[in-house]
Amino acid sequence: MEEEAKAGVDIWSYAFGFVKMAVAKCAIELGIPDAIGSHENPISLSELSSVLGCEPSRLHRIMRFLVQFQVFSEKPTSQGATGYVHTPLSRRLMKQSENSIAALLLFECTPVMLAPWHCLSAWVQSREDIPFVAAHGKDLWSYAAEDASHSKLLNDAMACLARTSVTAVINGCPDVFDGVGSLVDVGGGNGTTSRMLVKTFPWIKGINFDLPHVVSVAPESDTIQNVGGNMFQGIPKAHAAFLMSVLHDWDDDECINILKKCKEAIPPENGKVIIVEAVIGEKDDDDRLDFVRWTLDMIMMAHANRGKERTLKEWDYVLTKAGFSRYNVRRIPAIPSLIEAFP
Ligand SMILES: C[S@@+](CC[C@H](N)C(=O)[O-])C[C@H]1O[C@@H](n2cnc3c(N)ncnc32)[C@H](O)[C@@H]1O
Predict the structure, then answer these.
(1) Which residues does residue 326 pair with via DSSP β-bridges, in sequence order?
(2) Which stretches make up the O-methyltransferase C-terminal domain (predicted)?
């Protein structure tokens, strides 16, 4: 009966789960997190409404919903009115905060990224093409190549995830970069990862490698070389190849091809490939991020070509088939793990 009672509560998050996402999107679009962040003291509803140009009673309903779920909290202003302040959760919705996911949330909420979800069941029944293609007539990478504004949203969203994961890599296993003289970040997006790694490990010469339309708008840097190309054709040579959130976009055969190209790019005697990706099905007791990995697997189904998140056994298959002689997997306090693979 306890399970029955729990089901009677949990089921509502399946029917209405999108509402939290939609209201958080609304809050970011209105600029609520940034307005509260730039105000030293608690900000009253009337001040917030006038700063943001909002209708106060509607804004009040948005705020009281968010406060219910610890996105913002209430604190009296110096005049004794109800004021709003940040919480750890709401700070992550600020555009500029260190661990912001604002860009990721806005990207996932675009009509372009939501449309493929309506094509998921047809794909599972093999009635339609992969969901993104069924919705848009081309895959995500071709879509982004032709739509600069969507490409920017995509790259900014990936940079959000990268900041969190790379921080965990730097703190969790800095020794991985000992003696790495040069590193090519394959599918490195706007270069956020390369910049973070080279800043922390200044002996590394960084190459940010991605599709030409992506690197052509990546920030210029004195320490990072941006190189455009196609990883299925060839990858710039370096002591180590780094792949983060790239292999999960592709099926096993495509992954094996990418890994083989990485292997060709590194020295056979002392090079390595560093993979930062989720490993599913390996939950530790205190690992509260596990649901994100399973969620990402569904996101790959909807958005990536034939991509998927992989179990240890599935990682073993692609790494062995690509010809790596050994590898090790290291857990870090983040969604992905770090896999070092040696030729
Ligand atoms: C999910 S994003 C990950 C970006 C970055 N590694 C990160 O973690 O923030 C995948 C990246 O792969 C790039 N990509 C897709 N196809 C590619 C190809 N054929 N050659 C090189 N890069 C490619 C995309 O442009 C995109 O930047």
Answers:
(1) 342
(2) 117-325
190 CA to centre of ligand 1 in angstroms: 9
> Which atom of ligand 1 lies nearest, measured to the CA of 276?
8
Answer yes or no: is the C-beta of 141 below 6 A from any ligand 1 atom: yes
- Distance from the CA of 155 to the center of ligand 1, in angstroms? 9
191 pocket-lining for ligand 1 (C-beta < 6 Å): no
Cα three-residue angle 169-155-260, rounded to 5 degrees: 60
| Annotation marks residue 248 as catalytic | yes
Count the domains in the chain: 2
Spatial contact of 232 and 256, defined as CB atoms under 8 Å apart: no
**Distances in Å between the alpha carbon of 166 and those of 181, 296, 315?**
18, 18, 20
Question: Which atom of ligand 1 is least distant from the CA of 158?
Answer: 9
Question: The CATH number of the domain where 267 resides is what?
Answer: 3.40.50.150
| Domain final position from 91, 110, 133 | 91
Residue 61 sits in the same domain as residue 121: no
Residue 312 Cα to ligand 1 midpoint, Å, equals 22
Residue 77 sits in a domain of what CATH number? 1.10.10.10
Nearest-atom number in ligand 1 for the CA of 155 is: 27
Distance (Å) of CA 164 to CA 127, 169, 333: 38, 9, 10
- Residue 96 belongs to some domain of the structure: no
Which residue(s) pair with 44 in the sheet?
A: 83
Residues 253 and 194 grouped into a single domain: yes
Q: What residue numbers bound the domain in which 48 lies?
A: 2-91
Which entry of 86, 150, 239, 248 is annotated as an active-site residue?
248
Per-residue pLDDT of the chain (343 residues; tens, 9 = 90+): 799 999 999 999 999 999 999 999 999 999 999 999 999 899 999 999 999 999 999 999 999 999 999 999 999 999 999 999 999 999 999 998 889 999 999 999 999 999 999 999 999 999 889 999 999 999 999 999 999 999 999 999 999 999 999 999 999 999 999 999 999 999 999 999 999 999 999 999 999 999 999 999 999 888 899 999 999 999 999 999 999 999 999 999 999 999 999 999 999 999 999 999 999 998 777 788 999 999 999 999 999 989 999 999 999 999 999 999 999 999 999 999 999 999 9
276 and 177, same structural domain?
Answer: yes
Determine whether the shortest distance from the Cβ of 117 to ligand 1 is under 6 A: no
